[in-house]
Amino acid sequence: MKKKGSYLNLEVAFQQAAEKFARLDPAAAARQAGCTYHSEGCLEVPFLNQDYRVDPASGKAYLGGSEAPLYHNIILLHYLVTADGTPLTGEWISYRHLPGGEIYMEPFQRRAVIPFLQAFGYQPELFEQAALSLGGYRAPMGKPGMVVPVLPRVPLAFVLWPGDDEFAPTANILFDARAASYLPTEDYAHLPALALGAMKASLQR
Known about the structure:
alpha+beta; five-stranded antiparallel β-sheet; TATA-Binding Protein; 2 domains
């Protein structure tokens, strides 16, 4: 995906993804993505701890009866089109090690890691609280590190080493070693920002 706002043209990106999805068997796509296919013909996809419904005929996604934001809709379609059912490994890799990730490292740092540090670098307790609100759980690294299940088979590990009076905070965001089986690499440069937005919103409720 191009950066949010310029994104080639969100409508074009949506149409391309919707056309690809319409050619798939929706029941098979649901199985491979780890989501639910309902008899009336829609797919139910948990995304950032909310249940979206996707209509295979139109490609449109809905949340609570309203159309989902187009940007979220595109991510959901990319997920359903890309998912191949490969089991996750539980091994964590950096963005750099995703296919072609080296090319997007600067945008990834700017859009994902730096905003993570700005939001929670000195507030590890709030970070943990916010991640838990999205169904997150402890990661085996970081102080703290939290795994957020953004999509059924797309966990993100947000790893924080908080700052103090002497040291600046540091952070990273890691991906399952089979992440490429579920989304294109460029989408992973944007996904953490959506998760961070949901985390921050949870603290306002």
